[in-house]
Amino acid sequence: MAQLWGGRFTKETDQMVYDFNASILFDRRLYRQDIEGSRAHVKMLARQGILTVEERDQILEGLDSILRDVENGTLAITSQYEDIHSFVEANLIDRIGEVGKKLHTGRSRNDQVALDMRLYVREEVQHTDALLKQLLEVLIGIMEEHTATFMPGFTHLQKAQPVTLAHHIGAYFEMFKRDRQRLADIYKRMNYCPLGAGALAGTTYPLDRDYTAELLGFDGPTLNSMDSVSDRDYLIEYLSALSVIMMHLSRFSEEIIIWNSNEYRFVELDDAYSTGSSIMPQKKNPDIAELVRGKTGRVYGSLMGLLTTMKGLPLAYNKDMQEDKEGAFDAIDTVSQCLTLFTGMVHTMKFCSDTMEASAKNGFTNATDVADYLVNHGVPFRDAHGISGRLVLACIAQGKALDDLTLEEFRAECPVFEADIYEAISMKTCVEKRLTLGAPGETVMKQVIAKNKEYLELKQGWE
């Protein structure tokens, strides 16, 4: 058992207790962050005269060799170590001797793990943002291509009014854009360095915390040592943002699943992102979309788990906080995989434009435009609404769309109708006359696309 403590104890820890207490099986993914933080700490110690330049260089060389050997596979991170911190320090001492024991001067595992996790999450926030940007670039491409692809818009899963595919996809663009904004906020709020907080009350050594923060790319040091070691707000915020991302992916997946069904046939999924049935040869299942939808609950669970872990903890550090990692790592991995696969699925998906437009016509999505036509010819809206509704009822009885009614049939309900009714209720007219910003009309839709392309060119705060 490689441990960083023991002087107070007179006998070995029970093996089951040791295993229960150990975190090496999951925190080993923090090896690079642990070494990065240790390098900055040692540089600061030497600058403050707490270590000599020779000691600094020995320790740095030893840390570099550990990093190199872990990454080339010649040094394994095994369960003989309690955690990643003991792994690094024990191997450092094995390599450079007594000088390695000075690495931990002015530092506690409490501020060390707080730093490691913050460095890790900071990188993952950037990675999640990059994946979202890739998805947005795919979506903007679909939007540009389909400003005149008509389809039904829905409320209550009922066909409501005609829109375009560009407009529908644009709604998801806005969702994922907000997700990126949330990540930028999280990064800005979390980018402060806890190293130097010690166990909870700082240290008597003359540490330069500003210098350490600068070396590690933080905006500055944290300002309260107790909060520094017990804060997991940034991780809760990140898991919350990941949960919202998954909610958006799940909503989109639900629509793709519906659109892919035999009843809708709005989309054709690429074979690479579909599976078949072991018994039914005709099946082409949207498994990726279904799994993304299903894994959303898994990410929600990680968020709720950490919120529940933190809700009753007194200041400052408590061992409960070790439970912040496994669920978070799983959620981060899950979202990364879901975003990557979902982007590939959407990028290769084919849209059945003719089917979409026919569905809009057959769903009476232009019924409101019939009423608007009448209003524009002097009929009170409430009367116009009733006339349009009766025309829909007649179409249902005859199994046809509003566009298929004869002029005589229109006039049988209201003599105001003229031959221009057909132009007034065509899908093209219904969509294109909606020109308020944010509506599906092609003119304003192209303005929105241009704004969103400009947005995609912007750099995030950390770039």
What does this structure look like?
The protein has helices at 15-21, 24-27, 31-47, 53-71, 84-96, 109-145, 165-190, 209-215, 225-230, 233-259, 287-310, 324-348, 353-362, 367-376, 381-398, 407-413, 421-424, 427-432, 442-457, and strands at residues 150-155, 158-164, 267-268, 350-351. With 463 residues, the chain is mainly alpha-helical. It has a two-stranded antiparallel sheet with strand order 1-2. A hairpin with a 2-residue loop joins strand 1 and strand 2. 40% of the residues are buried. The model has no long low-confidence stretch (mean pLDDT 94).
> How many angstroms does the end-to-end distance come to?
42 Å
Find the structural class using helix and strand composition.
mainly alpha
* Total of helices: 19
Fraction of residues in H or I helices:
55-70%
Strand order of the largest sheet: 1-2
Low-pLDDT ranges = none
**Rg computed from alpha carbons, rounded to a whole number of angstroms:** 30 Å
Question: What global shape is seen?
Answer: elongated
SSE order in H/E notation? HHHHHHEEHHHHEHHEHHHHHHH
**Average pLDDT value?**
94
Main β-sheet: number of strands, strand sense, barrel status?
A: 2 strands, antiparallel
Characterize this entry briefly.
With 463 residues, the protein is mostly helical.
Secondary structure elements and their pairing?
Elements: H1 15-21, H2 24-27, H3 31-47, H4 53-71, H5 84-96, H6 109-145, E1 150-155, E2 158-164, H7 165-190, H8 209-215, H9 225-230, H10 233-259, E3 267-268, H11 287-310, H12 324-348, E4 350-351, H13 353-362, H14 367-376, H15 381-398, H16 407-413, H17 421-424, H18 427-432, H19 442-457
Antiparallel strand pairs: 1-2, 3-4
